[in-house]
Inverse folding.
């Protein structure tokens, strides 16, 4: 078996090309390119020549050995290696679920090739864990003009379904259930999942735990605006003052 599939996948990564973008460069179908990358098919000689010429790579190198990132970037080897190691040590690349790809995600969430093609966020968080970003599109998690608004992004850490019952009630999660993704607070009663919105006019949704396909515990949040914390703080102070007044009246 040749190294062609592994090499073109590395070329795409270094050049920042999606499968679709790479395929269009050489008049290929995306499925055909996917077959090359997975080693299920080998290219025609004319395709091989086009790719080799386009990226100034010898055909022999494309086929017979794994091309290094340094060769593709044409940087000094020690500089490139150090930079690559630094990035791998500190950054996590996070696929993002958006309104545009949500429908496809629901059916292809376990397809590695599809996940690799999703738009991504790169953040300085633990790269050894699996994260997913989810773009909010409703007002279900708002309360008195506070909370999460359309366009905000939540970052969830993948959580095994097996530990779902161990999560604290009220934990923020987004999960896939009943062919949709729901972002709410999680409550567990026996083998039943209750998903509760912060908006008072939104009813709870309930499902058997067995219907949950994916679970992401929210770890990070990116808001499109600066949250107003003053109103919430004043409410808490007012509540404490009211409670103290009640205690004082009882003592009198």
């Amino acid at each position: 078996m040749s190294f062609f599939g592994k090499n073109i996948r590395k070329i795409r990564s270094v050049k920042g090309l999606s499968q679709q973008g790479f395929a269009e460069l050489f008049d290929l179908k995306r499925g055909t390119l996917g077959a090359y990358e997975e080693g299920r098919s080998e290219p025609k000689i004319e395709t091989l020549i086009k790719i080799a010429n386009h990226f100034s790579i010898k055909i022999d190198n494309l086929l017979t050995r794994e091309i290094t990132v340094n060769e593709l970037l044409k940087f000094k080897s020690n500089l490139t290696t150090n930079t690559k190691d630094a990035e791998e040590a500190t950054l996590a690349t996070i696929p993002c679920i958006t309104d545009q790809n949500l429908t496809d995600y629901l059916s292809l969430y376990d397809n590695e090739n599809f996940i690799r093609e999703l738009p991504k966020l790169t953040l300085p968080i633990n790269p050894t864990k699996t994260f997913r970003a989810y773009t909010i599109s409703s007002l279900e998690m708002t309360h008195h003009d506070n909370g999460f608004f359309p366009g905000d992004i939540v970052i969830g850490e993948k959580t095994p379904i097996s530990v779902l019952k161990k999560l604290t009630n009220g934990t923020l999660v987004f999960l896939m259930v009943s062919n949709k993704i729901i972002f709410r607070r999680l409550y567990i009663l026996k083998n039943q999942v209750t998903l509760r919105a912060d908006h008072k006019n939104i009813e709870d949704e309930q499902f058997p735990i067995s219907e949950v396909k994916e679970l992401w515990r929210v770890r990070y949040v990116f808001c499109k605006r600066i949250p107003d914390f003053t109103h919430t703080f004043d409410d808490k102070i007012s509540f404490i003052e009211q409670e103290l007044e009640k205690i004082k009246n009882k003592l009198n």
